[in-house]
Amino acid sequence: MAHSKALLVLENFIGGKFVPCSSYIDSYNPSTGDVYCRVPDSGKEEVEAAVKAAKDAFPIWSSKSPLERSQILNKLADLIEHDLEEFAQAESKDQGKTITFARTVDIPRAVHNFRFFASSILHHVTECSEMPAMGCVHYTSRAPVGVAGLISPWNLPLYLLTWKIAPAIACGNTVVAKPSEMTSVTAWMMCKLLEKAGVPPGVVNVVFGTGARAGEALVCHPDVPLISFTGSTRTAQRITERSAPHCKRLSLELGGKNPAIIFDDADLSQCIPTTVRSSFANQGEICLCTSRIFVQRGIYSEFLKRFVAEAKKWKTGNPSDPTIDVGALISKEHLEKVRTYVKKAQAEGARVLCGEGVDPLALPPGNQKGYFMLPTVIAEVKDESCCMQEEIFGPVTCVVAFDTEEEVIRRANGVKYGLAATVWSGNVGRVHRVAHRLQSGLVWTNCWLVRDLNLPFGGMKASGIGREGAKDSYEFFTEVKTITIKH
Hints:
This protein is an alpha/beta fold. The protein is built from 15 helices and 23 strands. InterPro entries: Ald_DH/histidinol_DH (IPR016161), Ald_DH_C (IPR016163), Ald_DH_CS_CYS (IPR016160), Ald_DH_CS_GLU (IPR029510), Ald_DH_N (IPR016162), Aldehyde_DH_dom (IPR015590).
């Protein structure tokens, strides 16, 4: 990484080369509040060049065998893994997340994404159907779609970018990726490894910049037939409108307002530490984080007491300190937005039990201007409050009581989102019943964030369209053709 005095200046990666841009935007280190990096402010011209490079590379890349592509993906995984510590340091500095989280979650998962799709691409089978009476055999074949437009968010930068790039190129597509302008460094670092891994020029192009300019140009480009986007529901609405005239295929992984439902027979010794983690991991900046906790009335006061005590143990501070649990939020604006929700809850009569505005936040001298917030627990919030309805995306969770199974299912489903939910109970029948009735793409019971990448990932309602995973990503990133042979 560059010396802190000298700003790091990123360049777009187009056609296998780093290309300077005519204008740049500032990127901040969230833990200090200082500008530490300059990111290209790309627009139509840069996207046009990247799409052309991707189109030119498509015939050769798509004609490679799955095995050849698999070997290249595995090599790229090895190279990232070799530089794991450097990537982790960069991710922590750029995003504000703790070095521990970057080391143990973000970068290992980015490596695993490439390895997983390098393996899964070798194991798909196509369908076949016989019609002896007609003397016909039908079978299907799958082919890559073309140039994939990939737009990834700032909360898990390399983790979610590679979750898109890996299946796209494994299937034989070429890509133009646009990471968040707030967290572009690890994507740029990955570009430096592509040639060494054997990725031909133009197969992976990365254009940096804002959604309004670079993202818009990518979504509107007539030669980009599919868009995979992870981010906010509002941006997804814009993407849907702008891509509609071109009939693009879309995969949209959007926000969540995820409930945890804790029944009175839950094992609190497991439930409380896991629910603290599901509420505050990565500063609460994960689309799968728990932001509504429904606790059955019989255990409500005990749960609250123990939960708040556990939340207060989480240390907030300099993300590069390995003993820290909560790093900085992504930006000054985002921190203000999250604080506003806490103020609104107080104005509505809810009680803030710990965290923001209640406990003192002591920061090291170098982090005084950073965007920090303590884990915050709010009780007695009404279901119709914006704190219970809208995605806060910060270290804030709301705890409320419930009485019956029927009531809690209705209340848990009473938001526009449907991404993830957790259910805590020792009753197997209840766990299945509740899981079936929750309007949620993912339901974890007695655990959180245990993922098998083979299985579908994605949400219902305003939480998105489409699913990602071994089979789902393969289907999204390929076109299917039915071939009939008369013999």
